[in-house]
Amino acid sequence: MTFDAAAWLESATIDPAVLALRPDYRALLITAEGLLPGPGDELSERLLAGAESAARERFGDGPVEEHPHLAAWREAFRAFGAKPQRTRPSAEALLRRVSAGLPRVDRLTDIYNAISVGHVIPLGGEDLDHYVGAARLVRAEGDETFETTAGGEPVIEHPAPGEVVWRDDTGATCRRWNWRQCTRTRLTHDTTRAMFVLDALGPMDDTALKAAGDQLVEALTEASPGVTIASRLVGAA
User: Fold this and answer.
1) Which residues neighbour 15 within 8 Å (Cβ) at sequence distance 6 or greater?
2) Which of 11, 80, 116, 190 could form a disulfide with 134 if both were Cys (CB 3.0 to 4.6 A apart)?
3) Is 211 exposed, middle or buried (0-12, 13-18, 19+ CB in 10 A)?
């Protein structure tokens, strides 16, 4: 069956219980088909190095968590019971690693990490070949499965009741809004179809959110010239 990106994006939902926590929340969802995966290369390295340089210039030795967008994300985490000092919003976690150098994972992950750092926005990627059904952001019941690793071994965890999670028909794909992705749908050297989630709260307006999405699309297109892109903004009007 041919994948209908527009229809799949239209099926994505944000539960009203999540918007009750943060009425200012928006998710820019971007699908990409025809990606060229693999290890890091000149392009991904150039993007990461540029993001590191820009972050050092922007923050210096100052506390990254005081950036308005990251401060808002810390508030959002506290709203559903998470402790941001222990489980940090993904963009903050990356920015805290800039001084020692951002991780080099693979070309697709490195690309979206560079955009995340450069625009100070939580950004994740999911392999659509391992995604089952519609994407939805919900407050967890607590019985959802979350596939991860501990001590190098695969384990199944369960989110806490009320925790904000992205999920599909199989289980949770990302815990604590944007803190940690599951192993089942993570991007790999075999990923050719992906969905990217760009998370915005009030301090990041729609113009800035679009700019981050546009740069991601530009980078993916440069990395994979035959890629097909579709997108949808979900959330607050």
Assistant:
1) 136, 137, 138, 139
2) 11
3) middle
Q: Which residue has the tokens 């028909």?
A: 169
The 10s digit of each residue's pLDDT in 4-31 is: 999 999 999 999 999 999 999 999 999 9
* pTM higher than the cut 0.85: yes
Q: What is the pLDDT of residues 207-231, one digit of tens each?
A: 999 999 999 999 999 999 999 999 9
* Degrees to nearest 5, angle at CA 89 with 154 and 27: 100
CA atoms within 13 A on the CB side of 155: 7
Question: Which pairing describes strands 136-139 and 164-167: parallel, antiparallel, or unpaired?
Answer: antiparallel
CATH 3.50.50.60 is held by the domain 5-234:
no
- List phi, psi (to 5°) of 97: -100, -5
Where along the chain do its domains lie?
5-234
Exposed / middle / buried, residue 120 (Cβ in 10 Å: 0-12, 13-18, 19+): buried
